[in-house]
Amino acid sequence: MPLSGSFLQELERIVGAGGVVRTLEGRLVYECDMHTFYKGAPDAVALPTRAEEVVDIVKLCRRERVPIVPRGSGTGLIGGAMSPAGGVMIGTNRMDAILQIDLPNRCATVQPGLINLSLTRAVASRGYFFAPDPSSQMVSSIGGNVATNAGGPHCLKYGITTNHILGVELVTGAGELVQLGGKAVDHPGYDLLGAAVGSEGTFGIVTAVTVRLLHAAEAVKTILASFTTIEDASEAVSAIIAAGIVPAALEMLDELMIRAINEGTGAGYPKDAAAVLLIELDGPAAEVEAQGERAARICWERGALEVRVAADLAERALLWKGRKEAAGAVGRLAPTYLLQDAVVPRSKLPAIMRELIAIGARHRVQIANVFHAGDGNLHPLILYDDRAPDELERAKAANEELLRACIEMGGTVTGEHGVGLDKAKNLPLQYGEADLNFMYRLRRAFDPDSIMNPGKLLPSHPACGEGFRPSRPHVPAGAWI
Amino acid sequence: MSVAARSLGEAFVAIAGRDRVREDPPSLAAAAIDGLIPKWIVSPTSVDQLGPVLALAADTRLAVIPRGAGSALELGNPPARVDVVLDLTGLDRVIEYNPDDLTITVQAGITAGALATRLATHRQWLALDPPGAAARTIGGIAATNASGPLRGRFGSMRDLLLGVRFVQADGVLTWGGSKVVKSVSGYDVPKLMVGALGTLGVLAELTLRLHPRPETERTWLVPVESARAAQALVERIVDSPLQPSRLELFNGTALRLVSTESAGAGVAVSIGSVAEAVREQGERLMAIATVSAGRIVPMPEDFWSRAESALAPGRGSTVLHVAALADRLAGTVGAIEEAFRTVAPGAAVCLSASASLGTLRVTVSDAGVAETVAVTRRLRALVAEVGGSVVIARGPVELRRAVDAWGSVEPRAFALMRALRDEFDPARVLNPGRYVGGL
């Protein structure tokens, strides 16, 4: 339903004519995020510069029951920042200031549109960094990181976004500007901040974020170990963890991915390797040195073909080069792919890898793997040719089966990308009616009229609808009633 | 279950079994909470019994106080009503321990001590050390978001709770989160349950993130002349490449209790890592401490458990949890001591602080209710400037009647909290009146 002329006028009055995108070609820029399957252009895009403007936009939309979709840099992978039902998209790109850097308290307050890496760059010379490091960190916004509770290779040691957020200023779906959390670490009452991080814009729009800054590690050591089987590599992972070592990152590449990378970037991984493990340790120099030696020894003990240790920054970059270019390298194997983000308990890695091979064979698709082995977060790339008939369908079927397999092994449907439109339908694999209903009711407390990013995060399921009540346990009947 | 019962007591017996329901006056009197005597103590032995107990309570408008070890019953405001004390210590099983995944799922009533014993076999731990942890239940630690010196390095329960099974006020068994170390599927319900004092649901099972226990941990104590000198030392440590596992500041009174040292203040630093790294970091720590303070004293291995016992609050004493900012730590310590000195000169004020976070634990004995009320108000005004808080974590009921135990919550955030409480427990079955703003 197109927006009325008076609505658009009011929108322009709030953010200025230069802050509203109304033309078709302008709006098409916003029709999808990086998950390009899901397309839906908003009827208008508003680009506010201040929290007060966001409040006014939300109030206007609430009054007119117009859906709102928040968007940062649009680098999400879940069909989150797109408008399936039209309405207004609120882009935070013009709200990209660093409001305060407070090193004595090791925190900073920024606007949501600030690019993740810009914050680290602003404090790096003073020895600090912002830990969440999604692969998109050169372009993704901190507001987007908060919305999706983004992870990254180094969250094995440092945790995901939520562990680094001290406070947010949020405009709720009711149009209320509310401060959740703050610089002080304890705030009496429910941890609404904890619930809001990762809520994917369904509670409201974040207009300021206070983040924790960490002291940069004194030393970093990067080790690359290659193995002839995924099992050996997985056992090395378990042995490293069992030895009490928590690497900053612990990444694995499988055979198909190694081949693609070798053909592409010339990272020079051993040709007969079926698995490559990238281990990064950081911390005080003596600790990194001792643990690095131990980790390398474990790899040899588990039958590594080769163990390389980066001697300097340039070598470190070389070891990471293949990993970082993995997604691009698979372009040599197939024109396109579906990217999955499921998680299994780490000890189930060999089992899920076997299952993946079987699933690929069943559906006649190739699956290349690059994943965060340390926390069991898989990123299978299911390859397909979109020009070939039914390949996409087979890829999708393999994808769904893979998710089920992960859940059966005690895993979860998304480890770090989020739910969005893409995985909302999969949540019932993991949650029962009561669990979904609890989440639905939680959402309604923040967004009473269901205008915030509708259709995302929760499935269309009876338990996520008004009036549903999960079945209650039976109680003894008695005379007291 | 289709059982007819002649009384509510019989109905609880039908659910939990005769020996799991107590109605005798001495037991009930011993279970009184802030002077309110319950009518029943129900001690379920399975999670399946929790739902029917709460459903029955909700249908008959009873007030239920979930209780673990009972160590935090003086946290918060006095309850408005008490009918059922729901004793969770019978739910003390380990459901699933996966050492390779560094995760464990336990029932809420297991004590942190029992859990630690189980984890020690794999050299792992739940990196959470609130005072008195050994005897406390994991559910209680989660419901009160209790933490100790390890928080600066490993975070609090909100960072360690991966998944949670809980029973809503109407008896519906609900699950939130996941059983793996990384998940963003759906809202982070576990965080919402941490520190909620069971007012959104009774915690039944918790899936926890574990850490490998450091191979070696050594502790040093640095006595310094004042809190200001202590803060300066802390800042130098935090700004160095050292990665302490614990970094705790003590005021002079606390220092005398935890050690044989006598000084204006002290800083205890632990380094946990592989042996080589502990040795090397220890040397650097000594260099930093010698320059700033002149002296550093190695502490025995059991320093932290001895410090915990030495600082344990005595009967009738009051404990305040103060959240301020790290860069105002010395000022906050000074303000707390000064407030008691002027208002309650006879009081003994013991202070320990998680120095890198800016949180303080204040244990006060020999102060009257009126004096403590006055100090609490004064401190709240002081930390309000930095968005901090002062919570009465323990204290006589008269104190918690005279002043709100939680302090005020920003009105718009509070409106959201009330909306959640109204949504999930409109009849106020769970812990009525004890939580923020009398929720």
Give a summary of the structure in a few sentences.
The complex is a heterodimer of chains A (481) and B (439). Chain A is of the alpha+beta class and 481 residues long. In chain A, 33% of the residues lie in helices and 20% in strands.
Unreliable stretches of chain A, pLDDT < 50, 5 or more residues?
A: none
Fraction of residues in β-strands of chain B: 15-25%
Structural category of chain B = alpha+beta
Q: Treating each run of at least 4 consecutive H or I residues as one helix, how many helices of chain A?
A: 16
CATH topology of the largest domain in chain B: the name is Uridine Diphospho-n-acetylenolpyruvylglucosamine Reductase, domain 3
Biggest sheet overview of chain B: 8 strands, antiparallel
Can you count the beta strands of chain A?
Answer: 19
CATH secondary-structure class of the largest domain in chain B:
Alpha Beta
Secondary-structure arrangement, i.e. CATH architecture of the largest domain in chain A: 2-Layer Sandwich
Radius of gyration of chain A, in Å, reads 24 Å
Please report the number of helical segments of chain B. Answer: 16
How much helical structure, as a percent, in the residues of chain A? 25-40%
What is the CA-CA span between the terminal residues of chain B? Answer: 33 Å
Query: What level of helicity do the residues of chain B show?
Result: 25-40%
**Counted beta strands of chain B:** 20
> Biggest interface and its residues per chain?
A-B, 104 and 106 residues
Strand arrangement within the widest β-sheet of chain B reads 16-13-15-14-18-19-17-20
- Which geometry of chain A do the CA atoms define? globular
* Average pLDDT taken over every residue of chain B: 96
